[in-house]
Amino acid sequence: MMHLNKTQLQIYAQKRNLKLPEYSFEWAGSLHAIRFKSKVTIDGQTFESPKFYSTLKEAEHAAAENALTSISPSGTKEDEIVVYKNLLQELAQKEGLKLPVYSTNKSGEAHKPIFSSQVEIKGEIFTGQEAKSKKHAEMSAAKVAYTFLDPKKRV
Questions:
Q1: How far is CA 49 from the centre of its chain?
Q2: Using one digit for the tens of pLDDT, what is the confidence trace for 89-127?
Q3: Pseudo-torsion of CA 25, 151, 121, 4, nearest 10°?
Q4: What does pLDDT average to over the chain?
Q5: What pTM, to 2 d.p., does this model score?
Q6: What are phi and psi of 42, to 5 degrees?
Q7: Which of 55, 63, 131, 141 is geometrically suited to a Cys-Cys bond with 119, CB 3.0 to 4.6 A?
Q8: How confident is the model at residue 13, as a pLDDT?
């Protein structure tokens, strides 16, 4: 999920009250075959993309991935799930669709509830995995919908 790296790095910085990541780049090659390498600085540390890429966006995401791997070796799984609701809303706005509508059901015992969510977008309903909180259930549903609808994932 390379396209999430910049978002995850930004969330990482925000949660820790750090200055937002700053990106810089260098390019090589001729104008018709330009290649990019990127650096990202966060919390006083600079991380570089491992190679040159055909787009600046790819280079920045690679640098962000390098930074995330280095500064958060335990991973960013919680941060990763959080962004799907935002990504789904952005996708809806880009495609001129109505915003996603969530419905969540609560079941189980009062001291140990289980939540399951569905999100409706583009006339389709997507169901996420059950979760221990409403927030995580909605994020799970958003992840299912986004993964299905994102044009970059379509073959």
A1: 18
A2: 888 888 898 999 999 999 999 888 999 999 999 899 999
A3: -30
A4: 86
A5: 0.53
A6: -145, 135
A7: 141
A8: 87
Please tell me the distance from the alpha carbon of residue 32 to that of residue 14, in angstroms, as a whole number: 38
Only one residue has tokens 């070796």, namely 73
Q: What are phi and psi of 51, to 5 degrees?
A: -155, 180
Instruction: Retrieve residue 75's tokens.
Output: 């991973």
pLDDT at 27: 94
For the beta carbon of residue 110, count every other beta carbon within 10 angstroms: 6
Helical segments of the chain, H only = 5-15, 56-71, 77-94, 134-149
* Whole-number Å distance between alpha carbons of 127 and 19: 36
Show the tokens assigned to 136: 């995580």
Euclidean distance between CA atoms 47 and 38, whole angstroms: 8
